[in-house]
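Methods: holo model generation. Sequences were used as deposited, without trimming of termini or removal of tags, and paired with ligand SMILES retrieved from the corresponding compound records. Each pair was processed once, and we did not select among multiple samples. The sequence and zinc ion SMILES for this entry were:
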Amino acid sequence: MQERELFHKNKIKLTEQRKEVYSILSRAIKPLSLDEIQHDCNKIDFSSVYRSIRTFIQKGIVTEHYFGDRKPKYSLKMNDSHRHYIKCSKCGRIDELKNVCIIDEVNKKTKYKIVDHYMEFIGVCPECLKK
Ligand SMILES: [Zn+2]
Ligand SMILES: [Zn+2]
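and the model returned the structure below.
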């Protein structure tokens, strides 16, 4: 979906700042922290990045990921699928987990209709294990 259309559909006013934050997230191949997003922004201060992200989360466009530290990371929610990640506790590398989701299992076990879930993994990556 075009960002203009997406913003319109979710009743988000298209500002330059939001556009830029959105485009950084759409280019990212892994979740980014606020610092990392701001680092890629031209001329946007930290609090504007923060506010844009909060808006996106409220509108269900962005997901928050927690990897066991105080700095959540953010990624765009995909319409067709969603993603889970694993982070190395030593070097900070993040990999995407493909086809790993327990929604169906939890749904079967509990009969709940799952509306949201959070699932991230923290481990030691193969490279760090070799050291
Ligand atoms: Zn590592
Ligand atoms: Zn999932």
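The chain has one domain: 3-130.
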